[in-house]
Amino acid sequence: MRTLAAFSLVFAASMATAQQNPADFPLDSVGYLNEELPRMEAAIAAKDRSFFHDAMARTVEFSDRWGFKVKANPDLAAYPMCTAAVMDYVVVGMCKLTPGDDACEPGLAARFDSNVKRCREIAARK
Known about the structure:
By secondary structure, the chain is mainly α.
């Protein structure tokens, strides 16, 4: 779980210039989360911790596609709710599976749900 927390911090601090049109980011984020969230819920129901290894790899792949590697990407600054939702996805899932872990800060799940909702609203306008 500490690895997930460290990943989240590194991921949040390491966004780089994207190769894609920043206006497409909300829709791509929502598409990614719409695919991942049902998988995550199924893994939680099955108590499948191994799912989260692959989920983290997919999140890294998504971040690579948007250039989240070296430094902040100012082109995505207009979409902090989408960036936060993608960054928090794996940690929130792990916290649902093991809620007593140190990385499971109070309010994380509610903040995640709010960010997903706001990201979906922005994507729907595009």
